[in-house]
UniProtKB/TrEMBL annotation:
A single cellular component GO annotation: MutLalpha complex
Protein name in the entry: DNA mismatch repair protein S5 domain-containing protein
Annotated segments matching region Disordered: 370-413, 426-463
Subcellular location field: Nucleus
Lineage, highest ranks first: Eukaryota, Fungi, Dikarya, Basidiomycota, Pucciniomycotina
Amino acid sequence: MAAPAPAAGAAAPPRAIAKLPEHVVNRIAAGEIIQRPSNALKELIENALDAGATSIRITVKDGGLKLLQIQDNGSGIRKDDLPILCERFTTSKIKAFEDLSSLGTYGFRGEALASISHVAHLSVTTKTRDETCAWKAAYSDGVMIPVKSGSDDPAPIPCAGNDGTVLAVEDLFYNTPQRLKALRSAADEYARILQVVIAYSIHNAGVAMSCKKASAGSSNATADVSTSLGASAIDNIGVTYSEQVKRELVEVSAESQEPSVTLRAWCSGTNYQGKKGRYLFFINNRFVDCSPLKRALEAFYSNFLAKGTHPFVYLSLDLDPTKVDPNVHPTKKEVGFEDETEIVEFVCEKLAERLASQGESRSYKVQTLLPAGGTPKASRPTSTSTPTASTSRRQSGASSSTSKSKIAPNKLVRTDAQSQTLDALFPALPSTSKTRNVVDADAEGDGTESDRPSKKRKSDHDPAFAAQLAAEQAAAQRSARVRIAQSECALTSVKQLRKEVLEARHKGLEDVVKGHIFVGVADFATCQSAIQHLTKFYLANHALLAEELFYQLGLRQFGRFSRIRLKPAPDLRETVRLAVEAASANGARAGKTKLSTDEIVERVYTTLFDARAMLDEYFALSISDDGSLETLPVVLPGYEPDVHKLPLFLLRLGAHVDWHAEKACFESFLRELAFFHSPAPSPSLPALDSAAQAKAKHAIEHILWPAMRQYLVPGEKLVEDKAVVLTTSLEALYRTFERC
């Protein structure tokens, strides 16, 4: 007999409660934690940082949906831990719930890799420093699966690999089509990925990070984000956003005992005019959203910024871990902390104090209005930096006057270190001498932007040559503006040499070089340049400074030099012979050696030829099998060394480089490379003609001095050598002449 149907309007009987299958539970949990590719990348970057990585490389395809690969040089994963790596709630970060109150790592739940394995194909290649090979494993739904198709053994397989870990996430959300359809375009997802990389690269300044799109058939795609090892937070802001943004930021640092908080920030000043607000918040090193803090900063900046403009804020708060709850959101994008109101007020208070110390003036961009006749009115202002009364009151607090004290004429700096001259846009015409038959500047880059093609010179009256010359000049200008990134190097000797440069820094001389204003080449023969810093005038030996600059640039680019190819490639023996014969003709060898010219040439040749593999790998100096010199390193883009000094350079490599100890070898080679590039004229070479001198002076002013301002770290040795000497000051001139 059939069961009676429920009466009309009666409630349906309750459904039976059933336990969901484990794979459904895991997939639902994975969807909460990994909501889009940028969430997955955030978890992977944090794992790499927890592993102590100093280099993180990210490769993305189709916005991270087809491929999201992250490679680090951290501590790696033990082979014995690989079988449980992607199981839920497996972690090395905490042992008990109480550990959350003293958490010092990003990860703690052990859910990230497990969640990824439930919605993507995950493979891991890892190597610890004490293992002889790397191990590769693949995962699906939290368990290890065979790496090779057709195999039944899920165990990790040995493979070649560097120290650290490579995680490849492929086909993200392949088994959740609804989530895949809900995502935006690949371009939008990639933009979100870049924002995550930029935020972590700024907060973890000193860790080299790069992010690029995977290119079909090419492994040298240009990185959209690339920061250097050892860079500072403000440097990375300049690289990832722009130098203009960097110039408008002010640093804010403060501490408080009650509430317990340490504040570090780079925030936009009152002249910043961003069309879109940028907020990067890190609380106890976690990249988070903090709505109360964001609202408070928006209200704070509304009193300073022009209508329609928004601030840039990178802010890091270190709070007492016992007062922070990181476990309030599945993706960890929010944290809870005590004393929220007091901490937000503390941040705004310190920011207000910092901006008030900047001064009272404001700068505005004002468009000139033209009357109907087209002639501008003489009385109409085109720009202003005069503060309004309301602006001054807001910025100076209790100040009742907006007038600024007039600077005394004998202390007034009338020039600006950032100003440029028009002749910088018109390079000196290159010489048409035979040196262009020695070096054809067919520059080859190692994946850098410093490649600079050029050709041999033709007649000055050839129209095609004139057009080519104009293109070369434009290329030279672009090359001079290329930013020289510091290469990644694991060699202890190179790290020590770089550290020694920083430890020898002379702060006073560095301030002069960084803030100098170039006046002119005072004496070309003795390498003296006149420069000004604030109200003081100096004579600087640009040859000594440039030689140290080239040494430091060589150290900076160790193992990653661009190349300039020599066409035709000179014979190494014959080139060295030129230097030996020149030394003999000048009497430089008298009484110093009993070796014949041929013996000296052969010794130098053998030394360089035997070391050619090392020279090619580390210094881009390539010697062919038949003994021809094929390439030289490009130390400073846009600057060409004097090729007449090439024979002497090769001879000195054989005689002055310590080829037995690694550190001494690298240092002495780079010193000789710097000597070769130095603008100091060689006494054994004929004096330059007027055209060549004009070109050399142009390079000194518009290539060498700007590079010294940007890269040179002057040391105590330059002070001892009197590389920069004070000649007079504006105050002294006023005492003598009573005017300037």
